[in-house]
Amino acid sequence: MEFKNLDNLYKYIEDDVDMSLFDSKRCRAIDILHLRDQIKDEETKKKCSYELFFYDFTIKEDMLVPHHQIGDNCYPTLQLFDDNFEYLKIRSSSVQNPKYKSKYNHLLWLSPAKHINFARQAVESYFSILESSQFSDSDNLLNKSFIRYFQNAFLLSKSVNYKNDMIITFFVELLSTKKINDYSKCILMKFIVENIKKSDKVLYQKFFDYSNSKINVIESKAVEGYLEVLIILSRKLGLDSSEFHELYGDYHLRQIKDHNKEGLGAHFFYLKALNEYRKANNKKKVEDTTVLFEQSKKELDLKKINVQLQDKDAVDMLGKIWENINNNINNLIEQGESQDIYKYLMFQDLLPNAEDLNDDVKSPFLDLVSTITYDINKNINTKRSIGINSYLIHMRTLSIPQIILIFTKGIMHGKITFESFINFLKNHTWYKEDFTYIDLNGERQGFDWIELISPSLQHFFLQIEVDLKIGKDSHQGYILPIDSLVIKFEGLLREFSRLVGAQTIEVKDEETEARISFDKLLENEKVKNLIPPNDLAFFKYLFTSIGLNLRNNVAHCFFKTENYAPSTMLLLLVALLRLGNFKFIPKEDIE
Hints:
There is one protein chain. With 591 residues, the chain is mainly alpha-helical. It is built from 26 helices and ten strands. It has a two-stranded antiparallel sheet with strand order 1-2. Strands 3-4 form a two-stranded antiparallel sheet. The chain has a two-stranded antiparallel ribbon with strand order 5-6. The longest helix is centred in the middle third of the chain and has 24 residues, at 312-335. The protein is extended and about 90 Å long.
């Protein structure tokens, strides 16, 4: 679409009878931009800019949505209308096309220039669009546009208490027509119920009866929508919803059969069906579906996809970083003593920032698809990021390679050995303290932590020295040291918690004692006040479901032989050093 002048654009706006909000083949921002660039007059050019900003805003559920947004930065912003919104005010009154009149007025209502007349004009225009719209119920884009117009009109009319009842009545009458498809009806029924001002049992019952009449006569995705509406309305009307939860579960299982779902697809629907059967309290179907769910895991093929970094500047920068890191490590290994290397691992800034652990950057692409995160045992992991996590990237590209480089070079130079590591723990950590005592029966109780962790360390150093000599990793050889040290680390954390006066047990309702979980130990304020934030985040990454989840995977035997890698043990050694970086003074020494 080529506009020769501003009047040409205005004429297009008035003549645009297409109600679609999603047709990019028609007037586009680039066409307005071309018009602005060819205009010489600054005042007219400014008006084109305002039209461009107006075009690039989307109004969704009574909120302004910019065209682009990265963090706090977005385009467009209301600040770009630097004429106190005078241009938009003129356009809102002069334009006649309801598609644009609704947007001009709604944008003004959502701006600092807001006035109730703008809201009312927008509601009137939205309702005019809804009433006059005519399209095939199979046209998905126009159904989607109708939904957006209705949602904007409904929320705006509710917020200013203007013609809200009329809009609801319009929709109720719509149910008996084919103006929109069943899927759109489901979406809007659910939307109205969730956003209505006050409980309306009469309206709820109408929606309930209508939805209940549809679930056995239609064969489409709309069945899912009607079941969701019935479940919500059952709760609103005080009815038992178990029947609809069970039907919803049956629907999910039918999806597997009807669409020949396998692997990830089947796994997804089994999980959803299982969730519905639990809500329906149907124990038999829960048991049967659980068996099918577990069997479906065998068909899951979760492959890794490697993505090569294409940006030359980024590659060059990363190369320079690694060149500097390599030089520092070479100097450390060649010129330092064993204890210098261990102190470097204990104190040096090798780890990502703690704030990055839960800081996910979610790609807009993920909004278009269903995303599921699995743990190592192919169970759904609800705590793991589905976005791009900078902490994990930092660990895999910088922290872990550095740690591997330090240990491999240190071992090959004879600076890192079992003996030197144990000696460092004895001389520079609190693990050396005697935590044993004689009880009333004259028997020794408590722990000698150096003694307890020594077998794991000894076995590891024997194995890695062999692997470095033959140039091959023996995964089987790391099973014992990793299993042992993971469990011992939890014991050390509990010992540390006791020493700092943090809670390590809790009393249940039945007055029975239970140990506080690993995650809760790390969240205790007394522990958090002493352990540096980056170290604490590192422990969470290693031992909880946020990251590698070593504690759970070892305790429940989820690790297969190939999961036992020397790099995992190296991370455990760094964690051991960092947790040991404290000194506890006996009370008698203080006194």
